[in-house]
Amino acid sequence: MELIFWWMPLVALALAVAGALVYREWRRRTRDGGGRSGTPVAHSERLTELPEYRRILRRYRALLAGLLVVVVVAAGSGVLLASRVSSVDVVEPQSYKRDIMLCLDVSGSMTDVDAKIADTFATLAGDLHGERIGLTIFDSSAVTVFPLTDDYGYVKTELTKYRDSFRSQGNDGLRYWTGTDLGSGASLIGDGLGSCVLGFDGDKSSTRPKSIVLATDNYVNGSPLLTLKQAAALATKRNVRVYAIDPVDYSSDTATNSVALDLKNEALSTGGGFYALSSHDAVPSIVQKIDAQEAGLFTGSKTLVISDHPVPLAITLMLLVMAVLALLWRVRL
To answer: Can you give the pLDDT at residue 17?
Structure first.
């Protein structure tokens, strides 16, 4: 705690001392001048010696002393209130100005996972603040479903449409694969990832954190323009982290283990991560881990925060004023 206007108590103290000195001088001059107010009364000592009179006088003086103490404390509280009792902290707020591109392999083996990812981000869209979300899907060619946007209502609507289409294998609503089958081959991972990287606006000096959630099993069928390694290098050059989600069980197949290891190494080379699914139900928890990892990497600029705390002093001052009024009424001043 500290005082914003630290000089106010000093000024108040100086004024109090000056006032006390002036009062003392006035009292001295009045006493030396012999001036007395009131009307002389003969034999008043008979009255002042009475026990009842003495009792009333003691109570009167006690009330005056109490009134003086309360007035001093109230004045002190008022000075502190005017001085702004505050706490000063340096905070590093979490930055929510992130760009997240969903990069989904829509080949037949991936639709269940894609549906889970779309559903999870559709649910999360209502709680986002400042992030931009984009969606790119690919098979033999890539399609930008919607670019990076913070229109969360639109994001939720589009992701819900694609979730339903993934779940129904394209039989319900739109055909999710439209535009992704224009090339030669299937699951061209390098081309798909490269398209997702190029979906971010700004150059590598942009201060917005950029990340890609890549869902693929890394089974390439065809000759892509970019290999996975080249696409990962492009992501690294543009400061984009890749978080790969792989649904295939590699526990009993050495060949597929090698495919997974390639995907893992390239994702990690960008500063991102790799997640192998034990079940499709694990997608929401993986998305939460990715979000937590991203949030932990970036904080806002250090900010000096000054918080006033007037309430305790204001309540104290109000109670003291009420006490002053009660004492004034009691002593009949």
So the answer is: 87
**Range 67-71 average pLDDT:** 82
Alpha-carbon span 257 to 252, nearest angstrom: 8
255 band by pLDDT with thresholds 50, 70 and 90: very low
Distance of CA 300 to the CA centre of its chain: 10
pTM of the model: 0.59
For the beta sheet containing 240-246, the strands, ordered from the edge strand earlier in sequence to the opposite edge, are 142-149, 132-138, 99-105, 210-215, 240-246, 273-276
List the CATH code of the domain at 99-297: 3.40.50.410
In the chain, where the domains are located: 2-24+49-90+305-331, 99-297
- 3-class secondary structure, 242: strand
Q: d(Cα 116, Cα 122) in Å, to the nearest integer?
A: 10
- The conformation of residue 144, written as its DSSP 8-state character, comes to E
Strand partners, 101: 134, 212
Cα separation, 69 vs 35, whole angstroms: 29
Sign of CA dihedral 139, 195, 281, 151: negative
Strands 2-3 and 132-138, by their bridges, are unpaired
